Q: What sequence folds into this?
């Protein structure tokens, strides 16, 4: 019994790892569902073949270890060695190829352009017919039940865009646009991850994806398009003044203010994001303070300077201001 | 001693002549894989260039039909070569699978055998190369 538990426990833990918001086997999107079925078909086939082959080995070595007739061996090679694999592989190839076009199907109207940066994501929403994009960063929200098209590229090195629970992955190249589309079917919070090694903080280059009911999504997008709300309260106002005085606006944009920098992520609505620093930290007061004090402590090589000369109170003011940017 | 040498000379020459003929079929066994190679390149480069340059000029359907035509030709060519090779191998009358004697008849059969197997694998490969053409209908 103890032995059985010892065997089963790791298996159960392994299976538990299959669910979750960054799992291709816990699909929340139409494409991921198709891919999960593909995975289980392959797995099932592999298990059947494994059992069959090992059964054959067992039979040939233990049960009937005598010489086989030449004709029988010949047939075994032709059928088992040529015909069977040819047909099975052709069937699997056809199955895989038949799935492929769906993963690139055109969207229903909304297009999201994502550019891989060192180590964050520049995001632009282009609703159907839009002349100018709605700019944001490090988080993507999508309407449930509609197919959203992605236009992907990269600033300097190759990254790869992957939200395992929603669909397949697609590489992002500097100077070349790639496309894919995703169709969430279940509202929820998922996690995406850069899937192509891109430097020191590659592993910290993640993002949150929220799949929302269409009405909620439209309301969110309309709000996302608006300018930043002015700071409320003395702390936030001091924070806004610090933001300007410390030159944060040279790299960051906060629409509706003097800050128009394009080097780093757009911060217009940073307080409404689920995570900070492309999935690195939460959005609590303490997280923001620690981040501004020393970004490289959380993301080695981060291209934002440390502000460790600021006092605890000043960092707190800045954090309050940023959190208020809802 | 000298007698032996003169005795052997004609047979030796005969072997050499037969061997020279076989050199041709040594080349011949590469034909089926070469057809596969050419077909692969035509399909791959054709679609790549079409998607990069010619999308406005004509529809992908035209290209796909053309390439599937090329597939039919390639398969017919490979099948023909496979049939010749099978006859040269001549396994049905000789029953010889191993070709272990170093004489020209065995070389002849061996090359037929090898050419036949290469034709078979080329045939399968050409079919596999064609599958994406059938399933994927756009450049995206
Ligand atoms: Cu990356």
A:
């Amino acid at each position: 019994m103890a032995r059985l538990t010892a065997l089963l426990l790791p298996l159960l833990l392994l299976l538990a790892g299959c669910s979750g918001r960054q799992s291709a086997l816990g699909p929340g999107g139409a494409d991921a569902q198709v891919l999960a079925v593909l995975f289980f078909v392959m797995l099932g086939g592999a298990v059947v073949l494994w059992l069959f082959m090992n059964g054959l080995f067992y039979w040939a070595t233990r049960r009937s270890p005598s010489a086989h007739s030449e004709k029988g061996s010949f047939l075994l090679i032709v059928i088992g060695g040529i015909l069977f694999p040819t047909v099975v592989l052709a069937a699997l190839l056809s199955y895989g190829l038949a799935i492929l076009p769906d993963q690139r199907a055109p969207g229903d109207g909304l297009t999201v352009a994502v550019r891989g940066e060192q180590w964050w994501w520049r995001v632009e929403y282009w609703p159907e017919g839009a002349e100018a994009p709605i700019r944001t960063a490090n988080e993507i929200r999508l309407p449930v039940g509609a197919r959203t098209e992605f236009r992907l590229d990269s600033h300097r090195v190759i990254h790869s865009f992957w939200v395992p629970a929603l669909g397949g992955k697609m590489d992002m190249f500097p100077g070349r646009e790639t496309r894919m589309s995703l169709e969430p079917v279940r509202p929820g919070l998922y996690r995406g991850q850069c899937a192509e090694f891109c430097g020191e903080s590659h592993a910290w280059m993640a993002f949150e994806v929220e799949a929302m009911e269409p009405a909620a999504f439209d309301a969110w997008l309309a709000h996302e398009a608006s300018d930043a709300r002015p700071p409320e309260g003395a702390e936030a106002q001091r924070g806004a003044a610090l933001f300007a005085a410390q030159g944060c606006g040279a790299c960051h944009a906060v629409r509706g203010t003097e800050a128009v920098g394009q080097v780093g992520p757009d911060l217009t609505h940073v307080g409404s994001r689920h995570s900070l620093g492309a999935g690195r930290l939460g959005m609590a007061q303490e997280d923001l303070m620690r981040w501004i004090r020393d970004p490289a402590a959380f993301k080695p090589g981060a291209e934002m300077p440390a502000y460790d000369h600021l006092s605890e109170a000043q960092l707190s003011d800045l954090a309050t201001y940023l959190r208020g940017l809802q | 001693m000298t007698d032996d040498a003169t005795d052997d000379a004609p047979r030796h020459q005969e072997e050499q002549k037969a061997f020279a003929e076989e050199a041709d079929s040594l080349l011949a066994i590469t034909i089926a894989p070469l057809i596969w190679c050419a077909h692969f390149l035509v399909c791959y480069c054709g679609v790549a260039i079409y998607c990069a340059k010619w999308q406005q000029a004509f529809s992908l359907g035209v290209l796909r039909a053309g390439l599937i035509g090329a597939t039919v030709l390639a398969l017919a060519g490979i099948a023909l070569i496979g049939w010749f090779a099978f006859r040269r191998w001549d396994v049905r009358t000789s029953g010889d699978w191993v070709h272990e004697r170093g004489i020209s008849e065995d070389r002849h059969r061996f090359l037929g055998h090898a050419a036949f197997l290469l034709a078979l694998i080329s045939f399968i490969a050409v079919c596999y190369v064609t599958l994406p053409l059938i399933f994927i209908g756009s450049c995206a």
Remarks:
- Residues A 116, 119, 159, 194, 198, 202, 205 surround copper (II) ion (CB under 6 Å).
- Strands of chain A lie at 111-116, 121-126, 134-137, 139-143, 148-154, 159-162, 169-172, 178-182, 188-194, 206-212.
- Helices of chain A lie at 2-16, 30-63, 70-103, 214-225, 234-245, 285-293, 295-298, 312-324.
